[in-house]
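thoughts on my protein:
***
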Amino acid sequence: TLRIQELPLAQPEFESGSLTPVEEIVAGIWCEVLRLPAVGRSGNFFNLGGHSLLVTQVLARVRQYLRVDLPIRSLFEAPTLEQFAQVIQEQVNAGKQNELPPITRVSREGELPLSFAQQRMWFFAELSSGLSAFNIASGVRLEGGLNVGALEQTFSEIIRRHEILRTSFRAVNNEPVQLIQPPSEFRLPVVDLSDLTREQANEEAARLANEETLRPFNLGEGSLVRPTLLRLSDREHIVICTMDHIISDGQSFEVVISELSQIYSAFIEGRPSALPELNVQYVDYAAWQRQWLQGKELEKRLTYWRKQLEDCPHRLSLPQRRSRPKVQQFQGARHYSQIARPDSEALKELSRREGTTLFMTMLSGFVLLLKLYTGEDDIVVGSTYANRERADVEKLIGHLVNTIVLRVNLSGAVSFKDVMARVRDVCLDAYTYQLPPELLREDMLKRGEERDRLFDVWFQLEKPRQEQFDMTGLTVLPYLEAKEATRFELSLGIGDLNEQMGVALEYDKNMFTAERTERMLDDYFSLLTLMVANPETEISTISLTTNDEIEQLTSSFVGSLEV
């Protein structure tokens, strides 16, 4: 039985007397997730700053507090507080409150299975032994009086709290298993550069940071997390933290930031850490995932994907400089640009008007770009989904992110609005029926359908960090953002930096020329410009390579630089 004190209720300034009990609970959830002091009944979740990752956090809390399981699209279709609360109330009235299988602690004895995503990472690591393609690194510059002992204690406590940071992986009877080591004393490596000039220290720090991020891990031996401290002077330090992808993902760094800030500040003030112990660990999630994704649940999701990927094209006819080799050796290069704040705000406003997320809007432009370059209507793009829909995994470090296939058929689409609507529906269904690609490929093989990969083109949008460093006595500045290496022929990555957007088109130099991909990026910005100016524009009227008016608009929209 839930006690009312456990629920995230609306605060008094919400005029809570006018809210129903469900509205009051939902208002509290929205305020917690959106980090707002107040939300009104007419408040629109997406206008208040919501996006797809925060949608999953809302739904996780609705499951936790109200025991109602809603699909991803429910909040998109009922985006105001009043509408969304009504959807929940209807489920309650109909007796459709669900108790999903809980994630419970499993015995640490015997052979502990990997999650599906970990199994994929382990397989890739076996094929690319000795390479660092699956390292994820992040770094910060610390200015002020750093207590190195407290920082070392902090990392030690984080490693103690999260079993996944003490986990290695070995094969037993040709199957990988997880091996969790007991907590042990942690020593923070410190490299002292303070004897160098400031310029020399910064150059050497950059070299060492790059070296650290590229140094491979051995999955079967030692720790798979590697914090390093670079001392530039008494009041200036750089911290680099590298983890193997098999134990982490981009969202894991949000957890690290939160815990690092809270634990360090407690230790520096002479207090013990106030963070509660984790109820479940990543290994419990891995066991739960394998138990849950079978039977009816697995078949329901496979049924959707069989239909969605039926007769799916194997390749896009991209303008390549040569045919694909049998074995591709990705040699990446990229063009980098920025979209200034006024234009990024215009894209966000377009998203709000059309009922899409910024991810969906930017993907719509990319899908249309691929259509115009290939002459094909059936476009397949890969991306990721945070996959943290359960409240008990939100605060876990681990590889929870899931790869999703986005197949958008633009046949008959007339305008930008049509493209955005189709992309929105495809994304919502992919979120709802998401499935580890390992299970999807396994099902394809059973049905005699062989594919070496599900897509060649990648799209990703990174949202601003929710967690911010707040370490007592220190000013924390970004130094190295957590990024994953791309391993596709063509990848478009967008970083929403609040003040502006960073846009990078990465490509395989063996497959594409620099001139061609630079033109592709320019054309992408041209499409975004047209989308913002008039989403009713008919696709058939677009001629990217000859329209001087578009190019003139675009020249004031962005500046492009190859790096």
Notes: The chain has a mean pLDDT of 86. The first strand starts at residue 135 and ends at 144. DSSP finds 16 helices and 14 strands in the chain.
